[in-house]
Amino acid sequence: MTLKLCVAQLNFVVGDLAGNSQKIIDAARSAYADGARLLLTPELSICGYAAEDLFLRHAFIDACDDAVKTVARALAGLKDMTVVVGHPTGGDSRTRSVVVQSRHNTASVLSEGAVVATYAKRELPNYQVFDERRYFTPGEGVCVFEAGETGSRVKVGLLICEDAWFEEPARLTKQAGAEMLAVINASPFHVGKGNEREQMMRTRVQACGLPLVYAHLVGGQDEVVFEGHSFALNADGVVAGRAPSFIEDMLVVHVSRAQNAIHFVAEVAPERSPEADLWDALVLGVRDYIGKNGFPGVILGLSGGIDSALVLAVAVDALGKERVRTVMMPSPYTADISWIDARDMAARLGVRYDEISIVPEFDAFKSSLAGEFKGLAEDTTEENIQARIRGTLLMALSNKFGSIVLTTGNKSELATGYCTLYGDMAGGFAVIKDLAKTTVFRLARWRNANDPYGTGSEPIPDRIITRPPSAELRPDQKDQDSLPPYEVLDAILERYMENDQSIEEIIAAGFAQADVEKVTRLIKINEYKRRQAPVGIRVTHRSFGKDWRYPITNRFRA
Q: What pLDDT tens digit does each residue of the chain (558 aa) get?
């Protein structure tokens, strides 16, 4: 064997420089004791990804520099051990209106107490959730370093994330003498992204003729999730190793040289279904948002409908039943089956369940407003009052007991404004904010057929999945009274919002003009609501978050 390397697929916390540094030190010592002589950590592992405008603070950059030195000193006694860490470097000169940047997204190569090489990321992504050109300037040159024990050292070419999606950085690195590529990454998850990465890196290794190790971050950070799924490809593009997704892991790769070519051998985690990835992304997103921000638990309104049912199942898988509380808040329009199904699901998962009627508050509101509303028919005003009463009650319980409110609205509702400001939108974290309604149903069925965290099989009563969805804010209300069928709505939403198709293109694809005009109009006029919505987990390639930056005041017809 020429070299044993280890990919530290770890979950870091943005800004926790001491904690992140200790995690790297512990991983390096463990890998060294196991015989590894090269440890790769993810992109910006020292500070966590993404630190956003922390990168603009000189004190933050200085603290990251100190943390790199701390890691180097701590590992000085590990003979022949090489560790790659990611961190920001540099500074800027600025006035109130102009900033001249000289910061870089950097990887440093540490060995026996010293920084022996550095590399600055060349290709800076500025699309989807990425905003790296706001913070960094492109690097220049290449980085090739040697790793391994004397007599069996390997020349490793270092790249950072986006660099490997372009031909030139890998080609120049090979010309500089690299025998293999090491790519450190922090690339947010969306459904199918893991396979996209593997395919792109397969293209890269086949083009440059070098094997590649891809070290990827795992964990939740605000609205984005990183799924891990680190891997190794041999020069022919065949997967030589793959780490499991959505958990911390130390992927060990055995590197050998034969006939002047490098070959990898490692364990290969099996491929996964989109639903399994989606579920684990939601679970990890909730667990890390709650855990990293120090909330003792969560509370949510359990209505007997599909959305709150799915959020409850995710929350229990993420946090355990002891940290999840549910509240059913019936109104005059709540059907008996909603009570029955909500109680049933809470019992199946063993969570705390309470019922607080909103009828007295609703009557009080109507009485207070009777003079103002005299002679006017009831409409969405009274519907919204009910939603806002529920939001107020949940926020009161949150304030009193410290648990954060999980909102239960989905992407289809958020797109069309089928939600109430300061009502069902009130809360701290939106678990299924990026799930279309049709995906909610599909994922609920998947969870009923699978129990990945051992919290209970078939947690969602079947009637919750099969009954027509309703907000239950007026008699016999159904969602489809005011919206196109969700199969139609979600298809239009995907084409218009996620894939930037025009109204004319969508109509030409066979959708009714009235449906397309209605859905796209609703998307446009409800931008003001989305600006006030809580942060939520991104699981598609375009979510209503950092990916979506449209003006509220807007008369353009797309």
A: 689 999 999 999 999 999 999 999 999 999 999 999 999 999 999 999 989 999 999 999 999 999 999 999 999 999 999 999 999 999 765 556 566 568 999 999 999 999 999 999 998 988 888 888 899 999 999 999 999 988 789 999 999 999 999 999 999 999 999 999 999 999 999 999 999 999 999 999 999 999 999 999 999 999 999 999 999 999 999 999 999 999 999 999 999 998 888 999 999 999 999 999 999 999 999 999 999 999 999 999 999 999 999 999 999 999 999 999 999 999 988 888 898 999 999 999 999 999 999 999 999 999 999 999 999 999 999 999 999 999 999 999 999 999 999 999 999 999 999 999 999 999 999 999 999 999 999 999 999 999 999 999 999 999 999 987 766 666 766 666 678 999 999 999 999 999 999 999 999 999 999 999 999 999 999 999 999 999 999 999 999 998 899 999 998 988
Where helices occur in 265-358 by DSSP H, the ranges are 274-292, 306-319, 336-349
Amino acid at 506: I
Structure tokens of 508? 């030409």
Residue 174 known to be catalytic: no
Taken in order 531, 533, 534, 538, the sign of the CA dihedral is negative
DSSP per position, 469-480: P---SSTT--GG
Tokens coding 456: 């209970």
- Please report, as a single letter, which amino acid is at residue 503: I
Given the residues 4, 6, 23, 43, the one annotated as active site: 43
Burial class for 188, CB neighbours closer than 10 Å (0-12, 13-18, 19+): buried
Decide if 505 is catalytic: no
Extract the tokens encoding 413: 């509702």
Three-state helix/strand/coil letters over 180-248: EEEEEECCCCCCCHHHHHHHHHHHHHHHHCCCEEEEECEEEECCEEEEECCEEECCCCCEEEECCECCC
Extract the tokens encoding 199. 């395919």
CA distance 367 to 361: 10
Phi, psi of 308 (to 5 degrees): -65, -30
What is the distance between the alpha carbons of residues 543 and 554, in angstroms, rounded to a whole number? 19
Residue 87 and residue 64: Cα distance in Å, rounded? 7
Token pair listed for 260:
């002047």
The DSSP 8-state label assigned to residue 427 in this structure reads S
> Is residue 184 a contact partner of residue 42, using CB atoms and an 8 Å limit?
yes
Q: Out of 6, 47, 161, 419, which one is annotated catalytic?
A: 161
CA-closest candidate to residue 456, choices 353, 346, 349:
349
d(CA 530, CA 532): 5
Which string of b and e fits 38-57 if b means at least 16 CB within 10 Å? bbbbbbbbbbbbbbeebbbe
Give dist(CA 462, CA 444) in Å, integer.
Answer: 10
CB distance 402 to 427 below 8 Å: no
Q: Which of 4, 121, 193, 411 is catalytic?
A: 121
Is 43 tagged catalytic? Answer: yes
Number of other residues whose CB lies within 10 A of the CB of residue 534: 18
